[in-house]
Write a structure and sequence with these properties.
Length: 197
C-alpha cells in the first residue's frame, strides 16, 4: 500500500469489482483484472473477494469522509454486492474458502525469505501486511455470512504464530487516515514490522 490513501480510488475500484462480481463468482479464476491502480506502480488491480471486502468495509467505516454523491455511489455498490452475495452464496463461499489457503501459501514464501535473509525481506513486508489484512476481511465475512471457517481459521492461527515471531511493535504502518478502520487488537500486524537480522 502506498503512503497515501485515496477514498476516491478505493470507491472507483470497489465499483469496478462489484460490476464484475457476478461473472467472477460464476467463473473459475481467483484473480480478475478490473483496471485502475492497486499498488503504487501497478496498472490494474486484481479482483478477489478478499480485495473487494477490504474496500467494502474500509469505505463503510470511512463513510463520513465521503462527499454526498460518493456516499450514494457507495450505497449502490454495497447493495449490488449484497444482492449478488445472497443470490450466489454457495459460489461466494467457495471462492472465499479457496482464497485463504492461496494467500497463506504466498505468506509462507515470505516467511522462508525472512528466515534466509531478514534484512532483505523487510521491504516486502507491506505487501504481506496487506495480504494478512485481506485474509482477516475474509474471516470476518465468513463469520458474518455464516460460512464454515474452522479450517481457514486454524490455518491462519498457525501462520500468525510465525508472523508474531518476525515482528516487533511499531506505529501503524498504513496512512493515519486508515488507523480507525484497523484497531490494534484485531489487526496487530499493521502495528509492527520485521525485526532486522
Amino acid at each position: 500500500m502506498s503512503s497515501r490513501y485515496s477514498l476516491a480510488r478505493d470507491l472507483d475500484e470497489l465499483e469496478r469489482m462489484v460490476e464484475r462480481l457476478g461473472d467472477y463468482l460464476l467463473g473459475d479464476a481467483m484473480y480478475l483484472p478490473v483496471g485502475g491502480g492497486f499498488f503504487r506502480g501497478a496498472s490494474t488491480p486484481q479482483m478477489t473477494l478478499g480485495a473487494l471486502l477490504l474496500r467494502r468495509r474500509r469505505l463503510a467505516k470511512l463513510r463520513g469522509k465521503l462527499k454526498r454523491a460518493n456516499s450514494f455511489r457507495l450505497d449502490s455498490a454495497l447493495a449490488r454486492h449484497d444482492s449478488l452475495q445472497r443470490e450466489w452464496t454457495l459460489h461466494y463461499e467457495q471462492k472465499l474458502q479457496r482464497e485463504v489457503p492461496m494467500r497463506l501459501k504466498l505468506m509462507a514464501g515470505f516467511f522462508r525469505e525472512c528466515s534466509e535473509s531478514p534484512r532483505d525481506s523487510a521491504g516486502a513486508y507491506p505487501i504481506e501486511a496487506l495480504r494478512r489484512a485481506i485474509i482477516q476481511e475474509i474471516l470476518m465475512a465468513m463469520a458474518r455470512f455464516g460460512y464454515e471457517r474452522r479450517e481457514a481459521a486454524a490455518a491462519v492461527q498457525h501462520a500468525d504464530q510465525t508472523l508474531r515471531q518476525l515482528l516487533q511493535a511499531r506505529d501503524f504502518i498504513w496512512p493515519p487516515m486508515l488507523a480507525p478502520v484497523y484497531p490494534r487488537e484485531t489487526f496487530w500486524w499493521l502495528y509492527g514490522s520485521p525485526v532486522a537480522g
